[in-house]
Specification:
By secondary structure, this protein is mainly β. The protein has a single domain, classed as Jelly Rolls, CATH 2.60.120. The chain is 11% helix and 46% strand. It has helices at 110-115, 141-147, 153-158, and strands at residues 5-13, 24-31, 36-43, 48-55, 58-65, 75-84, 90-96, 99-106, 124-127, 132-137. The strands form two sheets. A five-stranded antiparallel sheet has the order 8-7-6-1-10, with helices on one face. Strands 5-4-3-2-9 form a five-stranded antiparallel sheet. Strand 7 (90-96) and strand 8 form a beta hairpin. The longest helix has 7 residues, at 141-147. It is globular, with a radius of gyration of 16 Å.
Length: 166
């Protein structure tokens, strides 16, 4: 998290069993002894990806629309590219199943959150055990998506859309 750029990859995003109306929490990163955390979740009911932050005790939730995220849909990956600026902000680019969802900006980057943790205290990271999560330092989203065998943008442009009959 100290790099200027890193990528979080979540794979095997299958829906939970029926009867749950809450969001599927993919990962939460807690910075002990500080009032900071960052969490990633899928809200299948409202068709959106959620990024929840706690910055200096203030809770914020960012909602990124994902129209093809439904209660029964299975997705291969969610890629989050984190670009941290030395000015203290962070930009997150999100890709669901290799398709761009959008960009969001955090008012405080994870490097600064980590700097507020007392020495010798490890981060607390919790994740859904059904989801494979990995961190790729110094990679960008395109390289991570290449590892996931995502088609290039040129290939995506000529592929049929999901609802098209070929």
């Amino acid at each position: 998290m100290e790099d200027d750029r890193f990528v979080l990859v979540f794979e095997n995003l299958s829906p939970r069993r029926r009867g749950r109306s809450s969001a599927d929490v993919l990962m939460t990163i807690e910075f002990p002894s500080s009032k900071h955390h960052v969490g990633f979740a899928l809200d299948r009911t409202n068709h959106q990806v959620l990024i929840e932050t706690l910055e200096d005790g203030a809770k914020k939730t960012l909602n990124i629309p994902a129209t093809f995220l439904t209660e029964t849909s299975v997705h291969t990956s969610l890629v989050v590219e984190v670009t941290q600026a030395w000015t203290g902000t962070a930009r997150l680019a999100l890709f669901l199943d290799c398709s761009p969802l959008g960009l969001v900006t955090l008012s405080q980057n994870m490097r600064d959150m980590l700097g507020k943790v007392k020495p010798h205290l490890p981060l607390r990271v919790s994740r859904d055990r059904r989801v494979k999560a990995s961190v790729h330092p110094s990679l960008d989203a395109r390289e991570a998506m290449d590892d996931l065998q995502c088609p290039s943008r040129a290939e995506q442009a000529i592929q049929p859309i999901h609802n098209e009959i070929v």
